[in-house]
Amino acid sequence: MASLFDTYQLGGRTLPNRIVMAPMSRARATVDGLPTPSTVTYYAQRASAGLIVSEGVQPSLQGQSNPYTPGLHNDEQVAAWRPVTDAVHTAGGRIFAQLMHAGRVGHEAVAGFHPVAPSAVRLEAELFTGPRGRLPAPVPRALATSEVAGEVAAFADAARRAVDAGFDGIELHGANGYLIQQFLSSNVNQRTDAYGGSVTGRIRFAVEVAEAVADAIGADRVGIRLSPAGTIWDVEESEVAELYTALYRELARIGVSYVHTLNSADAELTAALRKAWPHTYIMNPSAGIVGPQADRERGEYWLAQGMDLIGYGRAFIGNPDLVERFRRGAPLREADVETYYQGGDRGYTDYPPLRD
């Protein structure tokens, strides 16, 4: 049986282990979307992971959700990311940038842009906007058919910038109720054009984005994160098995390197989707940010179910040396929830590693 500590070939890269640091928003960038010297330290501390997937990075100001999140839509941001990727590589690691467009999970108070979505369906929630605190999510503006290509192009441009910044590849954020999953959904997507209605219509945006980024940087540098049947940010999906089977078929045709899923579907659907995907499959044992953090045993369970790599999120916050802790059987530290998003170095770069 495969072990978490086995090497693995992901495209043309040899990963030293099968432990992936999953993407996690930390809200430590500048107001202009620039990573900081503390970001360099944070990711370098965790470079022993087989692969790091960065926090969500907005491909455009239109796509920004929370304040203090980093971007990849201008040259200044590219330059600010280079010390991060250089530090990870110097420490022996590999890092993909997760490209995340918020869609309706945004507010004009954050970046000055009214949110867009497949349809004008409001998210019934309050969103953190920075100095103005929490405000009700506005009704998003439905994208015109002619505008969809522009959002696709923003992903492709950000992917090129990610490679220029030194990232080894990119992961599309198609999970957790953000724009790509909003198109996949049956409640947020109420379109009657080619991007809505049927399974074929609802997967079209995700497929076009995957094709565009694969053309831009090569399919072997592209992964996608998905949450089949997930309901974060009030997304609902009908015909889930048919929807994701069709999406996997198209992503495999494009040659996408991996799919990375949360544990959001039931066991039967998860097994069926694993069987339907011919390439690398990353499983995140957690279904979200609630409940106990995943441990080594949960990872080994999913390897035994046929998954290739295991994604850990919260466990990497308090345990920058998570791989070594798993290897030694050392206890894991629980991260301080109050410091997840508060800014500053406390709860970010100050968790100490194991001592010999």
From TrEMBL:
InterPro entries: Aldolase_TIM, OxRdtase_FMN_N, Oye-like
A single cellular component GO annotation: cytosol
Keywords, sorted A to Z: Oxidoreductase
Domain NADH:flavin oxidoreductase/NADH oxidase N-terminal per the UniProt entry, residue ranges: 3-331
Entry GO MF terms: FMN binding; oxidoreductase activity, acting on the CH-CH group of donors, NAD or NADP as acceptor
Domain of life: Bacteria
Cofactor field: FMN
Similarity remark: Belongs to the NADH:flavin oxidoreductase/NADH oxidase family.
Name of the protein in its database record: Alkene reductase
Native species: Streptomyces buecherae
